[in-house]
Amino acid sequence: MNKYAVVLDSTVYFEKEFLEEHNIKVVSLYVTDELENSYKESEVSREFIIEKQKEGRTFKTSAPGPGEFVKEFETLLENGYEKIYMIGLSKALSGTYQSSIVGRNMLDNPENVVVFDTNQSAYGNEMLVLELLKMIESGSDAIEIEARMHKIIHQSRLMFTCENLFSLVKGGRLSTTRAMIGTVLRMKPIINMIDGKLILHKTERTYKNVFKIITDEIDKSVQGFNNLTLYITDTYSKKSSESLLTVVKDKYPTANIIKTDLLGPVMTVHVGNKGFGISWFTE
Fold this sequence. Notes:
There is one protein chain. The protein has helices at about 15-20, 45-55, 65-80, 95-105, 125-135, 140-155, 165-170, 175-185, 205-220, 240-250, 265-270, and strands spanning about 5-10, 25, 30-35, 40, 60, 85, 115, 155-160, 190-195, 195-205, 230-235, 255-260, 275-280. The protein is an alpha/beta fold. It folds into two domains: about 5-30 and about 65-155, Rossmann fold (3-Layer(aba) Sandwich); about 155-280, Hypothetical Protein Tm841, Chain: A,domain 3 (2-Layer Sandwich), CATH 3.30.1180. Strands 10-9-8-13-11-12 form a six-stranded mixed sheet, with helices on both faces. A four-stranded parallel sheet has the order 2-1-6-7, sandwiched between helices. α2 crosses α11 (about 265-270), α3 packs across α4 and α5 packs antiparallel against α6.
């Protein structure tokens, strides 16, 4: 048995089989509609949210409480794990990070739990988890793991675009007027994650221009580094994400590239049901 365990919040989207294979535990966020019906994110699907939205339902999301983290942490420690690594939403986006910190500090030995301040979200955190698992399963010690994880987090980036501009209005990243104009002109917003916050970087008319802006940002990141890892995801935007995949494969032939299409209810509430994005880090 590995002596290090991994706990995630439910916005780090992996298939159930993958979680079970690596004994990863998940603490769920919540989605709640205007009628105060509350659902654990881990127990519903993005399709459920999309169908309810079509019926006119609106949703908000909320973080799990500290006690939910305490329960998972204590169980893993009682089962013999020496160290627990927690990865979840950026603290600038959710109260989940703070809940996990409070939960850790409620333990008798809080030093046994490391909560990473990832400055990332969803598929960006999936990318980090894959690197963490590689180190754990290759036998790296805690000092090596934590040092490399902090470096990767520092060098990681995330960008995405979504088709529904009004999903950005709710988060305050776009005005209603700009969303209306952008929708008429079929503009595509490019969201950049900076210091853990989602910032509207630019809007473009064509996906070709979107791809150019993304690769320009990647080019800036790789200067002075030898290795590049790219992680691409989409939600009901397979054609566009496949086009982006082709672009980055051609431009960065030696990069390690991973493609997925997993996004869940919380991300659907905040960024809509159609879009694609990319995260990356350099070493």
